[in-house]
Design brief:
The protein is α/β, with parallel strands linked by helices and about 550 residues long. It is built from 22 helices and 14 strands. It has three domains: about 120 residues, no CATH class; about 180 residues, 3-Layer(aba) Sandwich (Aspartate Aminotransferase, domain 2); about 130 residues, Aspartate Aminotransferase, domain 1. It has a seven-stranded mixed beta sheet, with helices on both faces. It has a five-stranded mixed beta sheet with strand order 10-11-14-13-12. It is globular and about 75 Å long. It binds pyridoxal-5'-phosphate (PLP).
Length: about 550
């Protein structure tokens, strides 16, 4: 049977398909492929749709009679038949469907996804709408919504990284396994009636590239499934995600709390741009809960924003405790989880309202694309999304595809990077030419007890201090053969940097000292090269000092 179901998630009506289930791959194989269905007698229904020949039409009440469970069951033959039957006879019926749709909204909705607006359900209306959708290019229905996937015991992060967001977000282009790159700036409407239906929420599609794109949506869905989030907004960079979020969620004259160790540009935005809107900030040490409590009591705090682990010292926030305290004072919590990834840390499950990523790093994972993501509840994200639609920091569909592709191996990459970094950090800590290692997986780390509790792996970045000055540290870096000297982290290639030189060279030594950036600090981002090769390389360069 064809694995088709009528899902309840918001799915644009661009034409989505789910693959046949494993057991029924041979039957009723294709709804929309150019290749003939495996069933010898499949009918060609025009526009490349195929379905089993035995089903020609279903009774008008058939869909309504299906149980909700059956409607959501991807392998339910009844649902498959609904779809198949709807494809057997498709007079142009858009107008009739649109006329029927409002009535359907008032009743038990058989939602075809899409913006949460019920699309059809009443008596014959379902049939009409299904037919109209076939006419309009929708060949089938979502297979598995992300909530279902999340709850499914077999769908853990590895599975979600590969399949999340792709089963329900599959624009119909032949029988491609991969999500197509929808390289378009705008979207078309068949006629004015369809446009009005779109405006009124009874027909779901896209309008303009700044407001959404099917390829981008697939990435957003995949990240949502990995983070356990209701929704995700993908944007052009991590900074774009952070700045849009801060501008949207903190009112003029508002107050935020942030932490001392932080990506430099985020700190700059907080210190130089937000004050223009009279937004003030309290900066606390990542572990100083008393200071946080005081800040919450003395200010009307709108938002707590911190990385965890932080850049570059990998300090960790007790996300559960911080979220509890902030929520008691009505403040939102946003965690920049770039260094953690959703594989190692589930900030939302720990209590945060929002989780942000520089998707440039681990999520995309190949040092070839910039992007940012923000995940959370629809309610939290709605103001951010609205501002994003105005500011326009959209990611290009090609870049979105690279992220989608990169995400599929997130679990494999991150687990390897976790292992390499932990072993390397232990070796570094034991080396006489190393003064100190900053890695949350080490017992010497000030928040190791927190990291151990809230992370399942400690990430691929190690910061460490060479026993020596600026020049000795540069010598160590120059002596390495495998890692590139470059900013960024989280990609398949190992990267190494001396923060003083790469990020803070324009600052005076006094200013660097004030920010805690030491001349002998090295930040090493483990790639996915063989551990032994990286180990040998680091050791030979240390031994040469
Ligand atoms: C923790 C963290 N957050 C945000 C950013 C900004 O991300 P992007 O470079 O994608 O704008 C960075 C960049 O290095 C980062 O390290």
């Amino acid at each position: 049977m064809a694995a088709l179901c009528i899902g309840q998630t918001a799915v644009p009506a661009v034409g989505y398909e789910c693959r046949p289930d494993a057991t029924g791959a041979a039957a009723g194989k294709s709804f929309g492929g150019s290749a003939p269905a495996a069933t010898g007698g499949a009918q060609n229904l025009g526009k490349g749709f195929f379905c089993p020949p035995c089903i020609t039409r279903f009774p008008p009440n058939f869909v309504r009679q299906l149980s909700i469970k059956a409607r959501r069951n991807c392998s339910n033959i009844g649902v498959a038949q609904v779809v198949a039957a709807s494809a057997t006879d498709r007079p142009a019926a858009v107008a009739a469907a649109m006329a029927a749709a409002p009535a359907a909204e008032a009743t038990e909705g058989l939602q075809l996804g899409g913006g949460g607006a019920p699309a059809a359900a009443v008596n014959g209306a379902n049939e009409v709408l299904l037919e109209s959708l076939m006419d309009s290019g929708v060949s089938s229905f979502p297979c598995k919504d992300t909530q279902e996937a999340k709850n499914h015991p077999s769908q853990r992060s590895s599975t979600l990284a590969v399949h999340g967001g792709e089963r329900t977000r599959r624009p119909k282009v032949q029988d491609t396994l991969t999500i197509p790159i929808c390289q378009t700036s705008t979207y078309t409407f068949k006629d004015t009636a369809e446009l009005i239906a779109f405006q009124e929420g009874t027909f779901t599609s896209f309008e303009y590239g700044r407001y959404g794109n099917p390829t981008t949506n697939a990435v957003e869905e995949k990240i949502s499934s990995l983070e356990g989030a209701e929704t995700t907004l993908l944007s052009a960079s991590g900074m774009c995600a952070a700045t849009t979020m801060l501008l949207a969620l903190v009112p003029a004259g508002g107050h935020i709390v942030t932490t001392t160790d932080c990506y430099r540009r985020t700190r700059q935005f907080i210190q130089t741009v937000l004050p223009k809107m009279s937004i003030t900030t309290t900066v606390v040490d990542p572990a100083d809960v008393t200071a946080l409590q005081l800040a919450l009591e003395q200010n009307n705090v709108s938002l707590f924003f911190s990385e965890s682990p932080t850049n570059p010292y990998l300090r960790c926030i007790d996300i559960e405790l911080v979220s509890k305290l902030c929520h008691e004072h009505g403040a939102l919590v946003c965690i920049d989880g770039t260094f953690a990834t959703p594989i190692n840390q589930q900030a939302l499950a720990l209590g945060a309202d929002l989780v942000l990523h520089s998707a440039t790093k681990y999520l995309a994972g190949h040092n070839d694309v910039l992007a940012g993501s923000l995940s959370g509840s629809k309610q939290c994200l709605s103001a951010v999304r609205a501002l994003h639609n105005i500011l326009g920091g959209v990611v290009d569909p090609n870049a979105a595809y690279l992220i989608l592709r990169g995400l599929k191996t997130l679990n494999l990459r991150v687990n390897q990077q976790n292992r390499t970094a932990l072993q390397l950090s232990q070796a570094l800590e034991a080396h006489p030419k190393v003064a100190r290692v900053h890695y949350p997986g080490l017992e010497s780390h000030p928040e190791h007890h927190i990291a151990k509790r809230q992370m399942t792996g400690y990430g691929g970045v190690i910061s460490f201090e060479i026993n020596g000055d600026l020049e000795t540290t540069s010598k160590f870096i120059d002596g390495l053969r495998i890692p590139y000297i470059a900013p960024s982290l989280g990609g398949v290639e190992s990267l190494v940097e001396q923060p003083t030189i790469i990020s803070y060279w324009d600052q005076t030594p006094a200013e660097r000292a004030r920010l805690g950036i030491k001349d002998n600090l090295v930040r090493f981002s483990c790639g996915i090269e063989d551990f032994q090769d990286l180990y040998n390389d680091v050791m030979q360069s240390l031994d040469a000092l």
